[in-house]
Each structure stands twice: as structure tokens, then as C-alpha cells.
Amino acid sequence: MRKRSAIVIAATVGALALLGTTSPGLATQTVKFDSKVTMPPNAPAFHGRVKSSKHACEVHRKVKLFKQRPGPDKLLGKDRSNRRGKWKVIVDPLNPGSYYAKVVRREEGAAGTIFVCRGDRGPVATIG
């Protein structure tokens, strides 16, 4: 029985040592890029661009338009940026208030590297 326990312990130690030597090769690298959402205060269509130093962080990004209010802010609409990073949300009827856009954080992985496009909250535009 002791011989069997010794074999199991030796096998476990060997497996852990093997994992310890191969785990750095399995490590992934995370690369983060800042994103910025712009929104000029032109109504009734709120529009703007998603900007980043990495083109992949500008295209097909989910942008949400919110109206500020006491408590949780109200989601008025959402869009995905096009191949140039441009987006548009139409608000009709438009009530006076403060509005802002948010671009959602996104992660994409390829060949052991994870690219992170950081989210952003744009400036507040006050209407009326």
C-alpha cells in the first residue's frame, strides 16, 4: 500500500512540475487600447464617432445614448459604429434635458493575445 501511495505522490509531483514549466508558454498577453466617443449637440439626431489608435476599436462598436435623470439614467437608443467609426441615434420627440453617449468595452482574442477596447462616456450635451 505504501508503494502505491509513493507512486501516486511521485506522479502528482511530476505532473505539477511539468505544468509549471509549460504554463509560461500558455500565457496570454492582454493589450489595451483607449476609445473615445464624440457627440456634437445637434438634435434631433444625436451622432458622433468612436475614435481610437486601433482601427478595430472604432468599427462595429456598440454605442448607447442616455438621458440624465435622477436615479438611473434612461437608455434612449443604441447603434453600432460603421466602418468609419460613425454612429447615429434618432430621438423623436426630443425633450429638454442632458444627454450623453457611451461606447461599450469590447474584448477580442486571437493567437494568445487579447485585445481590449476600453469603454468611454462622452461629454454631456444639454438641450433646451
Reconstruct the topology from this structure.
Elements: H1 2-26, E1 29-33, E2 35-37, E3 45-52, E4 62-67, E5 74-80, E6 86-90, E7 97-103, E8 106-110, E9 113-117, E10 120-121, E11 125-127
Parallel strand pairs: 1-9
Antiparallel strand pairs: 2-3, 3-6, 4-5, 4-7, 7-10, 7-11, 8-9
Question: Which class best fits the helix and strand makeup?
Answer: alpha+beta
N-end to C-end Cα span: 84 Å
Unreliable stretches covering 5 or more consecutive residues: 15-24
What's the oligomerization state? single chain
Shape descriptor reads elongated
The number of domains is: 1
> Strand share of the residues?
35-45%
How many alpha or pi helices? 1
Alpha carbon gyration radius: 24 Å
CATH classification class: Mainly Beta
Order of helices and strands: HEEEEEEEEEEE
What name does CATH use for the topology?
Immunoglobulin-like
Number of strands: 11
Report the CATH architecture: Sandwich
Average residue pLDDT? 83
Helical fraction equals: 10-25%
Query: What does the main sheet amount to?
Result: 5 strands, antiparallel
Brief sketch in words of this structure:
The chain is an alpha+beta fold and 128 residues long. The protein has one helix spanning 2-26; strands at residues 29-33, 35-37, 45-52, 62-67, 74-80, 86-90, 97-103, 106-110, 113-117, 120-121, 125-127.
Describe the fold and architecture.
The protein has 128 residues and is of the alpha+beta class. It has one domain (30-127): Immunoglobulin-like. 20% of the residues lie in helices and 44% in strands. The protein has 1 helix and 11 strands, in the order H-E-E-E-E-E-E-E-E-E-E-E. The protein has one helix at 2-26; strands at residues 29-33, 35-37, 45-52, 62-67, 74-80, 86-90, 97-103, 106-110, 113-117, 120-121, 125-127. Strands 4, 5, 7, 10 and 11 form a 5-stranded antiparallel beta sheet that branches. Strands 1-9-8 form a 3-stranded mixed beta sheet, with no helix packed on it. Strand 2 and strand 3 form a beta hairpin. The chain is elongated. The N and C termini lie far apart (84 Å).
